[in-house]
Structure formats: structure tokens, C-alpha cells
Amino acid sequence: MTADTVSFESSERLRADLVTTLRKRGSLRSPAVAAAFAKVPREKFAPEAPLSAAYSAYDVIVTERDAAGEAISSVSAPWLQAEMLEAARLKPGARVLEIGSGGYNAALIAEVVGTEGSVVTVDIDPFVTERAARFLAQTGHPHVKVILGDAEHAAGEYGPYDAILVTAGAWDCPWGHLLAPGGRMVVPLCFASITRSITFVREGDRFIGHDPTVCGFVPIQGAGAHAEQAAVLAEGAVKLTIDGGPALDIAALDRALTDIRTELWTTVTVGSGKPFDTLHLWLATVTDAFGWIWPNPDCDCDLISPAVRWFCPALITPDSFAYLTVRDAHSTDEAKERRHQFGVYGHGRRGAELAQQLADQVATWDRDRRNGPGPGFTLYPADAAVPAPAVGRIFAKRRTQLVMSWPV
User: Fold this and answer.
1) Percentage of the chain with pLDDT > 90?
2) Which residue of 15, 180, 197, 332 pairs with 213 in a disulfide if CB–CB is 3.0 to 4.6 A?
């Protein structure tokens, strides 16, 4: 038995295992999408990754980094690709536009829509498009049209499309006019430093959002790029990020990090490993100061104790910040699930004020929003007259307005 035979058999087995895993978690729901995952060799689109990583349901494969070491191109995690493909409700013969290439996702789409359908995939990076075209040809998908160009303007001549799937973090959504009647547009849309993959369906002059899914993507480049503010503190050990607002005073924030901190503890608890992502949405609703605090995983320091390593909520002003933390909640019943108590640490001149504000909103979320339905999302043109939601917020963008509205 040759090494190639072993590799082929391992790949076949890992693909079957991946399909089983994705079905069990509910990410794969249709026979057509499951068949695509069972057929397309994911490892061919990520040759730099070992087979075990290529077929992990939860692993992202980074394929290109910039000079600073930040990922600028990747193959998304299979669970998220499956969720987005299912959300698009692709049919045989459908015309599909993919924003952000790589090849693998386009191959999955091509399998679902069949040879009678059409797939156009666009990317601004020639490194990405060259790879995508080469890998697609090698895996039997040469009919996928790979376009090098800025997705803000490219591929309109091949529309309208029955589905548009965006595989990069998009701050705006300028593709609605390319969607055919009855079409669906799945977009990882960024607002207030939050990203949710939302499926938009046209209703008159607006798009109604469905199934917002927590996700993370490499930011879109080109004309649609949007820069957040970032403050890197303690020689890279800690980073704060916020979308917009007054300019951050990095020197003041650096001093605040090591100054005396305010400590508050709420009565709100969360089970170990349980999500609380609607808290992020609530904080983004009620304050412009909402952002994130990030510990550097490569630094061994105890300057901060965030509630979670990634996407830990914070309130940030130019010279002060407060963030969410946790500690073990006291329990006399060892049989109960392990629970954590939410607290807040505040730093800087306004640290105590921000800590109290964050603690109060955690309590409000727990009382009024935690156990109810989350907010709905609607996308309008930028020039539309949009009534303010009773409870919610309008995020104004260049081409569109995103309305986040909570049930009253």
C-alpha cells in the first residue's frame, strides 16, 4: 500500500467523520450539503495544514498573514461553512456569488447547485485567487468562475444571483441590488465591534434578517474595509478595541491598567461553558462605549482576568475602561453544574463609573433579556427614513442602515 493510498483512505475516513460530527451538532441538515462535505477533499484547499486540522469541525486554517502576523486569508471552520450553506437554501441550478475566496467553500457550493448552476467567487488578493483557481481545477470544479477584484464593485455583470454568501467580516452590505427576487444573502455583518452571520431576505425596500449566528471572520479588504480603534497596552500583553468614538489615549490607558482598580461583583451567574452572547448585543444597544478586551495568549501576565479569553466585553473611554470578569460561584451542592459569578474590574479616572455602569447593565440583561428572544435585525438603504426602534439601535453605515430591535 503506497503513501498516496494511505492518505486517500485517511482523507475519505476523515470526511465521513466530519459529516457525522456536523450532523450531530445540527450544522448539516440537508442531504445535498452533507453530500458536498462528504465529496470535496478539504485538505486539497489547505495543503499547509495536517489532515487532522483540515478535518476538525471547529478549526480555522490560516492560509496567509500580513507583515504584522495578522491573518488576512483563511479557510473557515467547517461547522460555520455548513451553517451558512444551509442558511442559503441553495438549489440545483442556482446562481451564487461568493465574496471572499479560498476555493473550498466555492467547491461545496458548486456541488450543491450542480453543473446547471453557476458559481462566481471574488477576492481582492491575487495570492488567494490564484490558489483558489488552481485548487478548484485540481478537484474537478474548473467551471467555478474565480474573479480577482474588489468585491465592492466586482461581479455585478454576472448577476442577478439567487444567493450571495460573504466569507469575510463585512462592516457594510452593498450587494443587495445583486440579489434576485426570492434570493437569500448570508453575511457576517460587523456592528459595534460585534459580528453576526445574518441571513437577509428582501421584503420590499428592506432586508429582514434571520438566524443571527455568532462567528468571526478575517475582515474584508478594499473599498469596504473599516478600521476599529485599538489600544495595545503593557508592551503587547493587553489590547482594547472599540468601533468608533473619541480617540483613545493609549498612554493614559496604559497607566490605568497598572493603577488601582475598582472591583464590583454582581449576583448574576453563568454555567461553565454556557454562552452569554446576548449580553454583548444588549451592551451594544445601550452604550457607545462597548468594546472588547483581549489578553495576548503568548504573554504570561496577570494584568487582567477577563471572563473569557476571546471577545470579553468591556466599556472603553479615551482614558478609562471596565471589563467583565468571573469567579467561582459558591455552591453547597456538588452535584449541580459548576457556575461562575459575574464581576467587573474598572481601571482609570472613570474606572469606578464604568464598572458600575457595566455591572448595572449585566443585571438589567439578566432580569429583562437573558431568557427571552434576542433582538431582530433589519437592513435598510442608507437614505431610507427609518423609525427608531422602541428598544434597540440603528447602526448607520455607508450604503445601509442596520436596525437592531429587541422585543418590547
Assistant:
1) 84
2) 197
